Amino acid sequence: MISRRNFLRYVGGLTAAGASTAAYGVSEPVVRLTLTRYDLAPRQWPADFPLKIAALANIHACDPWMSLDRISEIVDRTNALNADIIVLLGDYVAGLRHVTRFIPASEWAAVLAGLKAPLGVHAILGNHDYWDDKAVQRQGEGVPIARRALERVGIPVYENDVVRLTKDGHPFWLAGLGDQLAFLPARRFRQIARAGVDDLAATLAKVTDDAPVILLAHEPDIARRVPSRVALQLSGHTHGGQVRLLGWSPAVPVKQGMRLAYGHLRLKTDVIVSGGLGCSIMPFRLGVPPEIVQVTLGSKGLAVS
Q: Least enclosed by CB within 10 Å: which of 5, 73, 159, 235?
């Protein structure tokens, strides 16, 4: 039988462990910043065409969890990668209410304007960028504030649109899907027939030749419908579950027998789901630190953090 003294020591140890874990989880979003690399050779991508992509997802700008100084640090770290192209995968506005300040779009966009790459910086929007805009939610349509802010600083935003780019004589298409959860459920039930503004078929129909395609889609779930014509899908949204235990994310549900939560998956196309940078709902991360994602196409290898 365990003694009273040993029992109290055991309880005290559990309490201390729980407190330290909670403290670490709260500090992780503002202290850590990792780089996760993926070296891929999709079958649809030419083997002699190396392309380095830097991807940022789920910034969720707000004080104190994602301050302008923190975003500036992310910009500097991203620029230091010397990527060929930088892509922004949506959710720039705050995704939680436990903040000391909601940072206006004009301020975080001005910092993101410091991102530089030879093939440019390209963006899509996420669900929070739509949800945070009350006018868009009320009207069921319109251009969100986040999009206007990004475009004012020279960062193009794609909604069911594509652009053809070229590096060293090799062309490729960058396609940006409209957000799949643009309208809040309460608004959808009242007057809007569908959840999102996405149109995958219309987007890919704008691709006019056989050059390889990279698809930007905030929510990764669309991957089940993406045809093999697409070489790579880049997504965010999930935060990697924001809490990962032994590689498992309890906050990300299984859909159609698959959990599209984090990392590299191979379906008809290669899919990378970023763990993102900021926090949603609660300012807490555990087992999935904030990350910048670097993807190098045209080479073989495994992901390395």
A: 5
Residue 27 falls in which region: left (phi positive, over 0), alpha (psi -120 to 50) or beta: alpha
Rounded to 10 deg, the angle between the 105-112 and 145-152 helix axes is: 40
Residue-wise pLDDT for 37-56, tens only, equals 999 999 999 999 999 999 99
Number of H helices, E strands in the chain: 8, 13
* Domain 32-297 CATH (choose: 1.25.40, 3.40.390, 3.60.21, 1.10.10): 3.60.21
Name the phi and psi angles at 105, rounded to 5. Answer: -60, -35
Would you list the domain boundaries of the chain?
A: 32-297
Tokens, residue 198? 């996405």
Token pair belonging to 280 = 């949603």
Question: What separation in angstroms does the CA of 119 have from each of 36, 150, 278?
Answer: 21, 17, 26
Question: pTM for the complete prediction?
Answer: 0.86
Rounded Cα distance, 240 and 262, in Å: 5
Residue 249 has pLDDT above 70, yes or no: no
Beta bridge partners of 173: 164, 213
What count of Cα atoms within 13 Å lies in the side-chain half-sphere of residue 38?
25
